[in-house]
Amino acid sequence: MSFLIKNKKKKKNIFGIISTALIFLIVLYGMKVYLTRSVDIKKLYAIKKIVFVGKNRFKVMTAVNPAEWKQGLMDIKKLHKNTGMFFIFPKKVDYPFWMKNTLIPLTVLFINKNKVVNQIKMTPCVTKKCLFYYPFVYYRQALEINQTNKNLIGKKIKTGGI
After folding, report:
1. d(Cα 16, Cα 102) in Å, to the nearest integer?
2. In the CATH hierarchy, which top-level class contains the domain 41-161?
3. pLDDT tens digits, one per residue of 86-142
4. pTM of the model
5. Cβ 146 vs Cβ 89: under 8 Å
6. What's phi and psi for 50, nearest 5 deg?
């Protein structure tokens, strides 16, 4: 009888060790995939546009639905000069922006009636608690670009395809 009890305990111990090791390997693999992934903005967003802000020309990817709005420029390690993300909303909104998992400093331009109505400099955030950047205006479009010191408020906006 004691032999059966010892075998059951051994089986439980072995099962516990194997399941713990398996969970550890799965978590380790997930971390490797997350840490080594390279987000290619061109593959992520198919629609390309040219956006003119005054005389400044930007080649942008568009975000036109909630999943794309949420993803934005998260995990992008480098944003080339005069490129960015153009957010298009179906109606006027006053949504705040945030920089969760965003690795580069950005400026967001809030656009209504083809004119920049506000702009905010945003800093990268890779912690659990990230700031919300409130525009305090209603807008139909927003443009995230590399952080700039230029004041673009009031500049006219023109868009076109590539």
Report:
1. 39
2. mainly beta
3. 999 999 999 999 999 999 999 999 999 999 999 999 999 999 999 999 999 999 999
4. 0.71
5. no
6. -110, 130
Q: Which two tokens stand for residue 37?
A: 């992934």
List Cβ neighbours of 122 (8 Å cut-off, separation of 6 or more): 97, 99, 102, 105, 106, 107, 108, 131, 133, 147
pLDDT tens digit sequence for 12-44: 667 666 666 566 555 555 544 444 344 454 455
Q: Which helix (H) or strand (E) holds 11?
A: helix 2-36
Indicate the residue type of 4. Answer: L
Distance CA 147, CA 140 (A): 21
Three-state helix/strand/coil letters over 42-88: HHHCCCEEEEEECCEEEEEEEECCHHHHHHCCCCCCCCCCCEEEEEE
Nearest CA among 123, 125, 59, 69 for reference residue 95: 69
Distances in Å between the Cα of 108 and the Cα atoms of 5, 13, 98, 133, 143 are 67, 55, 10, 9, 5
Residue among 40, 71, 72 nearest 143 (CA): 72
- The amino acid that residue 64 corresponds to is V
Residue given tokens 């949504």 in the structure block: 95
- In whole angstroms, give the CA distance from residue 142 to residue 144: 7
**Segments making up each domain of the chain, as ranges:** 1-37, 41-161
